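Hi R.,

As promised on Friday, here is the backbone we talked about, encoded as structure tokens. Could you run it through your design pipeline when you get a chance and send me back a sequence?
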């Protein structure tokens, strides 16, 4: 699953395998050592686990976590680009500043919250479209770095994040665990919708709706 937390999740998995290998080797050495030397048990080892949703984000009553949602396509003005995870927030907000300048110049008002559509991710970075929905296509379409398009549509699950942008990693870990528990498979795309303006709001008090687009369930053999 291609999420922005891939680097952190990958390290956690590697750490878990390394810890298991160390414990196994230690147990072998202990078996041939003097009988008075006690071998460590698995219960003594710290568990490697993702932060639960309550730790990933300070939720409030009514916050969605895995709520079914159906996304409808919206007309958007967007800037397409790529970036690295360590500079993700600066990269995304820089694109929103370009869009705002264009909308102000053309006298166009946003028709909903700004969003980032992540179209590809890996350990090193990501590809994205920073977008702002508008009511209708402008008479003079944008050119250059700024483009006109449509936002994704389809079945999705909605998750709410509250806190800093860096803390979104914890929320994505919790989302990954949720999808694994429900045996759901996500498409290689997800959306962050910013209920607080990422350019002007307190960077430590963001409210973000995360939409994970879900693949249709595979039919069992013999089903029509």
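Update: got your reply. Pasting your designed sequence below so it's all in one thread:
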């Amino acid at each position: 699953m291609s999420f922005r937390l891939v680097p952190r999740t990958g390290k956690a998995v590697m750490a878990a395998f390394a810890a298991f290998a160390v414990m196994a080797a230690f147990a072998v050495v202990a078996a041939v050592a003097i009988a008075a030397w006690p071998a460590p048990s698995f219960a003594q080892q710290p568990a490697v686990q993702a932060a639960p949703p309550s730790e990933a984000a300070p939720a409030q009553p009514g916050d969605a976590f895995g709520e079914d949602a159906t996304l409808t396509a919206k007309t958007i003005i967007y800037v397409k680009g790529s970036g690295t995870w360590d500079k993700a927030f600066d990269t995304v907000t820089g694109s929103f500043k370009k869009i705002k300048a264009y909308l102000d110049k053309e006298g166009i008002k946003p028709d909903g919250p700004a969003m980032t559509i992540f179209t590809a991710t890996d350990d090193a970075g990501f590809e994205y479209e920073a977008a702002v929905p508008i009511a209708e296509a402008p008479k003079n379409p944008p050119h250059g770095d700024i483009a006109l398009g449509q936002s994704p549509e389809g079945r999705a699950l909605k998750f709410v994040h509250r806190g800093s942008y860096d803390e979104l990693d914890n929320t994505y870990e919790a989302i990954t665990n949720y999808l694994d528990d429900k045996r759901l498979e996500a498409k290689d795309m997800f959306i962050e919708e910013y209920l607080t303006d990422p350019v002007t709001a307190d960077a430590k008090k963001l409210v973000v709706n995360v939409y994970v687009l879900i693949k249709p369930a595979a039919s069992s053999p013999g089903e029509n």
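One thing I noticed while checking it: The chain has four helices and eight strands.

Thanks again,
M.
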